[in-house]
Design goal:
The protein has helices at 7-14, 18-25, 29-36, 45-55, 59-62; strands at residues 3-5, 63-65. By secondary structure, it is mainly alpha-helical. The radius of gyration is 14 Å and the shape is elongated.
């Protein structure tokens, strides 16, 4: 998936445990794992807003786009 979620990076920078983060945002630890592992298909803006509030960051600090690389295509 070309959208990468860097919540684990921000949690490490903030030295915040996943459980504490999940509780502060209002997510289950399982749903945080879905986000961290790139298995989420969507994120509500209200959830994204809460994540940014808790981590004191901008959406671009936790979301980034990486183009898909087609099999056999040279890496750029």
């Amino acid at each position: 998936m070309p959208i990468v979620v860097d919540i684990d990076v921000m949690l490490a920078r903030r030295k915040m445990p996943v459980g504490e983060f999940a509780a502060a945002v209002g997510l289950t630890s399982a749903n945080v794992a879905v986000l961290k592992n790139g298995r989420a298909k969507a994120v509500r803006f209200s959830t994204l807003e809460r994540i940014c509030e808790v981590l004191a960051c901008q959406p671009g600090d936790i979301l980034r786009w990486e183009p898909d690389v087609e099999p056999g295509a040279p890496a750029s």
